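Structure, all two chains, one model.
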Amino acid sequence: MGKPKNKDRYKKGGVMAYKDMGYWQPDYEPKPTDLIAMFRITPQDGVDSIEAAAAVAGESSTATWTICWTDRLTANDKYQAKAYRVDPVPNSPGEFFSYIAYDIDLFEPGSIANLTASIIGNVFGFKPLKALRLEDMYFPVAYVKTFAGPPTGIVVERERLDKFGRPLLGATVKPKLGLSGRSYGRVVYEGLKGGLDFTKDDENINSQPFMHWRERFLYVMEAVNRAQAMSGEIKGHYLNVTAATMEDMYERAEFAKSLGSTIVMIDLVIGYTAIQSMSKWCRDNDMILHLHRAGHSTYTRLRSHGVSFRVICKWMRLAGVDHIHAGTVVGKLEGDPRTTAGYYDILREDFVPMKLENGVFFDQHWASLNKVMPVASGGIHAGQMHQLITLLGEDVVLQFGGGTIGHPSGIEAGATANRVALEAMIFARNEGRDLMAEGPEILKNAAKFCTPLKTALELWKDVTFNYTSTDAPDFVPSSTPS
Amino acid sequence: MKITQGTFSFLPDLTDEQITKQIQYCIDNDWAVGIEFTNDPHPRNTYWEMWDLPMFDIRDAAGILYELNACRKVYGDNHYIRLSAFDNTHGWESIKLSFIVNRPKVEDPGFRLVRQEVDGRSIRYTTQAYSTDKPSSERYRD
C-alpha cells in the first residue's frame, strides 16, 4: 500500500505532496462497492502526472491544501479517494487518463447533487492543472440501487403509447419563439394528424410575453386530442414545465396532468435536484419525463476539459428521466458515430461492457434500472432514414423539426413523409434487406405511393452536415487481419 | 377513416407474402406471435380478443399464416385483426412488433371527441369510437 508512513506529517503542518498523503496508491484494487471516476488530466508544465492525479483524488474527497490534525479523528484511509492508475492518452502528449476510486460511504444514497458536489465540485479550477475532464464513471450496483431511475422506461412507455417495433417520430414546433398559443396548437395538430407520435416544446419555450404557458397547454391539448380522434392513435406533446422555481414547475406539471397529457418536459439547466424532484413527481403521476439537454455543450464538447456527455447520460439514468437528447450522428449537431453509440448503449442496455473504441471505459451493470429512450434531434430529414435506423436502432425518438414543418406542401405532408419513410424502412429491415446499400431505393419505392415523401426526398437530397467531430474516442479499433 | 395503430399502418395493406416475411422475422428473433381481433378500435383498448394463445411453439411462418386465415374467415369481415410478437427475454418481457393485418370491410366511421367544459377554460376530453355506439354484434356491417 502506498499509505503515508510518516506519522510526523500531522505535527509539522504545512504543504505536502498529495501523492505522499495516501491519494496515490498504485497497488490499490478497487473494492466491489467503490465508485470509480476516470479523468483526463492535463497537468501544468512541470507538474508530475501522478502528483496531479493524486491532487484530483485528494481535492474531490478529503483533502485540502494543507494537513489537518482533525483527519486523525476519522478512519481517514477509508474516506480518502485513491488514484490507482495513470496512463498516457494515446496520441495526445501531455494528457493522462487517471483512475480514481471512491468509497461508497462518501456519498449520500440517491442524490446526484451530492455525487456531483464531490466529483466535480472543486477540482475543475485547480491551478496545477491546465485542464481536466471527467471521461467516465463506474457505479457499483449497491449505489445504483439507491436510485429509482426513469419513472416510465422504454418498455412501459411503449406499452402506454401502444407503439412497438419502430422508432417514435417527433418534431419540435417551429418557429421556437413568437407564436401565440392558438397558432402554436395549429402546428401541433397538423404534425400529429399527419403521422407524428409526439410534438415538442423547444428548450426556451416557457412563459413569455407572446405566449403564456397556460395558453400553450390549453391549445396544445386540444390539438393532441383532436389528432388522437382523427387517427385512432395515442399522441403526445412534450409540455415544457421548466420555470423559475420548483413551485412553478409543479403547478405547470399539475395543469398538464389535469388536461390529460401523457408527457411533460424539463431542461437540463433546471439542475440535478430539480430533475430528481420532477422525476419523483412523474413517477407519482404516471407521466413520461422528457429531458432536453439544454446547455450541455458548454462542458461536454471539448475533449480536454469538462464532463463527457456519457457521464451525463449515466447521471440522468440514475436521476430518472425517460427521454434524453443524445445525438443524431448525421444531423447538424456534434456527434461522432462511435461516441454516440456509447451514449446509446449506456441509456438503453442493462449491462454495458467496456468498449474503449466507443469511449466506454468501464463495465456497467444497471441492475434492471429502467431504460432511457434516446432522442435524435437536429438537422435530420426523411432521406437519411436508412442511416438513422442503422446507426441508432429502433428504441429512439427521431425528431424532424425543420424536416417536418419545412415541408413545402405543409406540416401534415411533412409528417406523413417522415412516417411513411420510417415504416417502409423498418418493414424492409425486417424483411432482411441491407438498409445501407438499398436505403435510397427503398425510399424511392415508398415515394411512389406517397407524394409528400417524393417531394421531401427531392428537396433535401443534398443536405448533409459533414464537419470534423470535436469529441471522438481516443482509442481506434485495431483492424482485424482478413 | 383509416386507423393508423400498429407498426405498418402508413403503408399500403400488406399482402400475405409480405405478412409471411414479417412473421419470419419474429420467429427468427424467437418471439411468440399472437393473433388478436377487435371491433372496438379505441386507442386505449389494450386487450383485443385472442385467437387462441400466442404461438410460442410454432416455428413456421406458414403455420401462423394458416391460423391468421382461419381467424379472418370467422372475423375478417367486421373486425380488425393484428399480429403481435412477444419477446419474453429479461428486461423486455413485452411486445416487440404489432401490426394490423385485417380491417373491416366497411369504412371505419372514426371517433367522436367529446369536450366537457370544466373550470375556467379547462376541458376534459373523451374519445369515443362511433362503431361502439352499436352493440358488438351489429358493428362494421352495412
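The longest helix of chain A spans residues 411-430.
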